[in-house]
Amino acid sequence: MFAKILIANRGEIACRVIRTARRLGVRTVAVYSDADTKALHVEMADEAVHIGASPVGESYLRGDKIVAAALATGAEAIHPGYGFLSENPDFVDQVVAAGLTFIGPSAASIRAMGLKDAAKRLMEKAGVPVVPGYHGEAQEIVLLASKAREIGYPVLIKARAGGGGKGMRRVDHPDDFSEALSGARREAKAAFGDDRVLVEKYVDKPRHIEVQVFGDNFGDAVHLYERDCSAQRRHQKVIEEAPAPDMTPALRKAMTEAAVKAAKAISYSGAGTIEFIVDASQGLKADRFWFMEMNTRLQVEHPVTEMVTGTDLVEWQLRVAAGEKLPKTQSEITLSGHAFEARIYAEDAAKGFLPATGTLHHLRFPDKAPEGASMRIETGVRAGDTISPFYDPMIAKLVVHAKDRQAALDALGIALSQTEIAGSTVNTAFLAALAADADFSAGDVDTGLIGRHQEALTAIAPPGGETIAAAALAASGAGASPPSDDPWSSLAGYAHFHAAPRRTRLRYGEDDILARVSVRPDGRFEVALDAPYDSVNSHDLRATPRLARWPGHVIVFEGAVSYSFLVPDPLARTDEAAAASGSLRAPMPGLVKLVRAAKGEAVTKGQPLLILEAMKMEHTIAASHDGVIAEIATEGAQVTDGTVLVRFVVEAA
Ligand code: ADP
Ligand code: ADP
Ligand code: MG
Asked: Which pTM value belongs to this model?
């Protein structure tokens, strides 16, 4: 086994590789860009090397810098993760030329499968069924259009260099062919620098079922069964599972045999995936599946396979790359139970899955697996980390395993509803809706399911009165910390909160909401809301609300949905008013905790003058403009809403 390896990646996959390496006693070297200086993978690794600026072209795609980092730190091998350089044969050549080991297949295997057209020609020769279509060299539009007609509409135009669902266009009618072709070519040129395409029959009721294969350097290859990745949006996977629902013994046998044949045809070494498209219009039939492409790397969704086969595929990768034989023979690899993986992304499902960015002010995953299930959270971020525009906006993969599909699906729903993420728009509610979708639950999946049900899957009910009341209460400052306390009954620090209702403003989307929070004689809170919402008594609440808050924001979690409220800063308004009146007033009742300026002192705009403690939080009152202090509150004074805290000397006009 290696003594030290370098991981040429970031995020969850870098962390996941480091974990297995550590368990095997292998030391790890991380690489990082400017944006990742404080990233989790850097913290987890034994050593870390800075390789450049944040854009991937200046860091994670710089093979030369990565190889230099491996040599400088004495790493013997490089694990590429997925994405980035993982399927780049020139990088493999560089690694090998430097005397290092690439933890993955040979450059020749990657080249053989790198382009979808050439891969299909190769597989055809090896006797593996391929998707009917045109995958030749010629690219004239007239020829491609006539091939499309021969194949029969609908067809799918695909970039031969494609990946990640890019450079693909479905065409339903000959009239649309030329425009779709231009679109696919443009996208392919921009994403892969190669605008050559292939044309395929668009398979009816398509299901994406792929087989995990593994080869070693002794010519042996096995499969680790299939995964179903049919739940897709824009040709990208959303929730994956293993095994495939309703898989038949005949189809499984045919697919896994074809997959192993494909791997052996290119003397494949390491982890790989053979992706098949299956026509499920008549159920799963052993003669209705075709090779689409091979991914010559570890796949994002590899954990579902690990869960149902009880293996660690990264351990297998390290062992095979270090020259060991495959850890198990085919007959020793068995299936047990059912597993799901949900990809949690920073994205706005309702706005066409637009990628989002932001700081994850609050990040909490379930602290234990739902009953009867086991769970893995694969993530590369912590609370406080930022989802930057530079990289894939994946936050985590939530993986669950249970005895059967229904139990695993129930566990997935529960785990999603216990996941709390705030600070960026995330897709947890969408994932939970998909997990609960009737067709998905029944295992009646195909790649069009999400598109057909998109509206229902992405709809979020507006917040109800209770939700708004919980947000208003939190915004008013009551019962804020610790967050696990029941805010409806935690009165500590609230003694000076007088009985008159406190006005709190909230903003939800485009709506301004005014709430009045008061304490009732029995010590519970009451939140009065304007129509159309009802006033809410703390006694009526079903459960303790789950909340996150940071200055200017309150988030209420309900199941997998998060409601995000903006809280306009009352101090900001005080500042504006102060500039006019020449004085600063207490924005809320509280205690003058600390006074940091004295009468007669000249202060500058923004300088902190005193600290007001109100509702368990400290608020700094800063000078609203340059001036000389005429009067300032005394330390320890209890003040009410609107009390003048600081008065400035009136300037001679
Ligand atoms: P999988 O087939 O393993 O599910 P995806 O196609 O979703 O993989 O892509 C895996 C990862 O690789 C994703 O993080 C994606 O952003 C990244 N990726 C996919 N294609 C490319 C590409 N052509 N260049 C760079 N990164 C890519
Ligand atoms: P990528 O390299 O982007 O992953 P794939 O060839 O694997 O490209 O295709 C991505 C997805 O597009 C598949 O998972 C499937 O949902 C859909 N797809 C691909 N080929 C076909 C086809 N011939 N018919 C119907 N759907 C297809
Ligand atoms: Mg694919």
From this structure: 0.85
Q: Of ligand 2's atoms, which has the minimum distance to the CA of residue 202?
A: 24
Instruction: For residue 552, give every residue at least 6 positions away whose Cβ sits within 8 Å of its Cβ, in sequence order, or none.
Output: 566, 567, 568, 569
Among the bound ligands, the one closest to the CA of 237: 1
Look at residues 201, 218, 235 and tell me which one is the last residue of a structural domain. 201
Same domain, 330 and 214: yes
Q: How far apart are CA 541 and CA 467, in angstroms?
A: 10
Q: Which ligand is nearest to the CA of 273?
A: 1
Token readout for 453 is: 């049900």
Domain CATH number, residue 610 = 2.40.50.100
Of all ligands present, the nearest one to the C-alpha of 297 is 1
Residue 384 DSSP symbol:
T
User: What range defines the domain where residue 547 resides?
Assistant: 465-481+488-566
Residue 465 near ligand 1, beta carbon < 6 Å: no
Q: Do both 584 and 528 map to the same domain?
A: no
Residues with CB under 6 A from ligand 2: 131, 156, 158, 162-165, 200-203, 206, 208, 232, 235, 275, 277, 292-293, 447
Residue 653 included in any domain: no
pLDDT tens for 242-295 read 999 999 999 999 999 999 999 999 999 999 999 999 999 999 999 999 999 999
CA atoms within 13 A on the CB side of 385: 26
Residue that finishes a domain, picked among 533, 566, 599: 566
How many whole angstroms from 274 Cα to the centroid of ligand 2?
A: 12
% of the chain residues with pLDDT over 70: 92
Does the C-beta of 83 come closer than 6 Å to ligand 1?
yes
Phi, psi of 499, deg, nearest 5:
-65, -25
Structural element, H or E, at residue 93: helix 89-97
Atom of ligand 1 nearest to the CA of 191: 23
Q: 279 and 179 in one domain?
A: no
Q: Which pLDDT tens digit goes with each residue over 573-586?
A: 555 555 555 788 88
CA distance 135 to 132: 9
**Which stretches of 310-359 are DSSP H helices?**
313-321
Q: Which of 9, 12, 82, 227 to mutate to test the pocket of ligand 1 (most atoms within 8 A of CB)?
A: 82
Is omega for the bond preceding 389 within 30 degrees of 0, making it cis? no
Task: Look at ligand 1, atom 12, and give the residue with the nearest C-alpha.
Answer: 83
Do residues 366 and 383 both lie within one domain?
yes
Tens of pLDDT, residue by residue over 195-232, are 999 999 999 899 999 999 999 999 999 999 999 999 99
Closest Cα to atom 3, ligand 1: which residue? 299
Which one of 160, 185, 288, 297 is the catalytic residue?
297
Annotated catalytic residue 297: yes
Q: What is the pLDDT of the chain when averaged over all its residues?
A: 91
